[in-house]
Amino acid sequence: MATLPSQIRIAELDYDQILTNLVEFMKADPTFSDYDFSGSGLRLLSRVLAYVTFYNSYYLSAAVNESFLDTAQLRSSVVSHAKMLGYNSHGTRSATYTANVTMVMSNNAPATITLPKNTQFALQSNTQFTFYNVEDTELTQNTSNTFIYATSNVTLVEGRTAQYRFTVDTNDPTQRFIIPNANVDFSRLTVRVQVSPTVNTTTSFTEASNLLLANSTSNIFLVSEAYDGYPELKFGNGVIGKALENGNIVIVDYYISRGAAGNNIRGPFRINDTIAGLQQGVTDTPDANTTPSIGGSDIEDIENIRYLAPLTYAAQNRCVTTEDYKSVILQDWSEYISAINVFGGEEGDPNDAKERPTYGRVYIAVRPKYGERLTQATKDAIIQNTVKPFSIVGVIPQIVDPDYVYLIISTRVSYDPKATVLTKQELVTAVKDAVDTYSNENMEKFETSFRFSRLGRAIDDADASITSSLTQVEMQKRVVPLVGKSNSITVKFGAALYKVGDTSVLLEPTSHRFDYYDHDGNYYTNCFLQETNGVVSVVGYVNSGGTRSLVVVDDRVGTIDADTGTMVLANFKPEAIEGGEIDIWISALPLYSDLTPHLNRLYTVDYDTISVELIDNTTTLTPSNFYQGGRIR
User: Fold this and answer.
1) Do the beta carbons of residue 100 and residue 151 sit within 8 Å?
2) Which of 125, 187, 119 has the alpha carbon at shortest distance from 154?
């Protein structure tokens, strides 16, 4: 009597193991006891069965993974899951630039002229970048030279204009209105619907902002990502939004954007279009204070979609908790924002010197991706267009700038020159890069603390030749006073300051000093601030008889509390700043080795200020009084 074959093992997913299990299963059957499975035709059949099993296993595993937002890998799957949570991913976005436009005309008869919508502006230094004005703009005649017309604050959008047309076929239930281009700026679509090929009457449709207000006659459309970043338009069904009719022609005008590549452009631009009577058209020549083009972004990363979709669902189109504010803002402005923190006024008012509570307010601290602070226009747009429609009555939202505290890193690195192939300069660069990487990965956010021990570890791990290091961390504030005028300034280090005996808690700077008049009208250069018993004074050096001595220029310009790290300056009147700079650098040592930010405070490292001193550990070292941070918190 033949024995029954053993049960086949099905737990393995690897192809080779699947094949082995199949062969062992068949070998256990007496029917195949005399078969050679290594070279027979049955071997080929076994391999086919193993491949089919392996393919099915992979397909089922992939299908299950794509069924969940957390594990999906395909962009189309992530976008689809996000839609179910009420989050619409964005495609490529065009950068915008605000410019003052001047046009020289051959005719001076009209008092005003109109710059047509979508007039092309080409960057003079690189014609690959083109910008367009987004609406008709009126320019006013110059009273001194009547051939010149000018206007200010014209919004220009990066990209190139394009148009796509669809013919509506209501008999085709599978018809979709997809623009076949992944670089379309979703946020600046202009949609018109023409009655038919023979009737040129068109109706403008606008993107729906609130479907609760839509009815059967509302000329609205929705836009979302279809696949691979292509935008898809959807129109009403006759109940919510007006339905399209058979034979209608949908005309879509849009911008094809270069995304993030369009950022950080300052002009100047010239008008590169045909306008009757135009002799020359240009934008103002930019200077150091000109805000560059901002807001351009590439297609939204799937990890960003995966992160924001659940937050948007939790917010439920209202701003109540701090996470609600973050998700609502990031949904529209994530490509502008590098870091964000939201806190209630009960935690403290960042505009108050002592950060006392202010009830009934929500503060939104935003660090932009480009520059150090948002423009006022961008702040207003975030509050009015994004936050206020969802905020609750009785709570006033306010955007505040980051309160930057720069950490000045100076390190002495002991190394074995025989244990590295790097030159001294390459090793210095490696250490500076290690500090910069630590800063980018562990700081640069509002809610992340600075850990001294982790910084030291990052420095020691920069190269295998490094045997030890001594590191000093200074806190530095950079204030921008009005030169030649009296200033009242509050400087908040945000931590207790290190002080030894009667020495000044403020460190003597080597740059970004200032010029100052004393009470007798004597002029001093390269002055700086010094502290004595909590009183802040202005001091400077004078040379007398070949001797350089420190003198007090103004004995009281403010006070400083070393326990809180808060300094208040009053009647502070610098006349000029060293090197033509715009800011004064004020430094102090922290009392504690670790630093934790509060409210809108943000710790950051300026790469150019990182100082690295290399010491050959094969030489005899002398004792060092190099300060290494303060007490362990």
Assistant:
1) yes
2) 119
